[in-house]
Specification:
The structure is a single chain. This protein has two domains: 21-41 and 167-233, no CATH class; 57-164, Nuclear Transport Factor 2, Chain: A (Roll), CATH 3.10.450. It has 240 residues and is of the alpha+beta class. It is flat, with a radius of gyration of 29 Å. It is 49% helix and 12% strand.
Length: 240
Amino acid sequence: MMEKNQEIVQSGSVNGTMKPNRRAVIVAVWIITMVVLLICTAATRTTVHENGRYHTKKEVALYLYTYKKLPSNYLLKSETEKSGEQPEDGYYIGGDVFRYAKKITEYTEKTDLRECDLDYPENTSRRGQKRLVYAADCSEIFYTDTHYGDDGDPAFVPVKKKDINKTSDIFQAFSIVGAVCGGVYVIYVLAVRKEPASDFLRDAKTSCFTVIKIVGYAVLVPIVIVYLLISSLFKRLKRS
């Protein structure tokens, strides 16, 4: 009887029904959670390179903080034919002195301020209203979507370096916590409970295959559905 019970425990089945391996489930959930957190960390992170071309608020602000200058796709007004219109070939206007410093005195004590355009509107030659106003030494940056802060509430919004990747940093923090929890769990299983490493590796392998299957189904099923829908549509078009 004892040998039979041991066989049941090892095989994970009772009365012919498979019992889920709790440890394998825990590891699988941990793997999926870590993958999601890492993807979210990468997807929400803003990065810039010195030779890159940028025009969004976060990208240009991060570039200014990092390299203390505007990206190479920015031109001074004097370098363009018509300062009131968008430059051609993906260039933006920026780097000129901000001549309305009195409007921003309640936000900064800096007096040597510059400005640059952001996100030109489509289907028009106008430059739009979005601007970054920044200190010449790039120590402070402000954003306004009303050109000179007119009718803004507030007129100028500070863009701090630590806030640019705030969401990504939160996901990264959770990723670190998750990695630490995973390490603690491994130590608990191997050192405290003194379970064989071979059993843990077997369960980890099972978990990895389970995750691969889940991801595979999540990717393949929508593709198959779309394929069937398109095939059905083409058949109907041929009949008509």
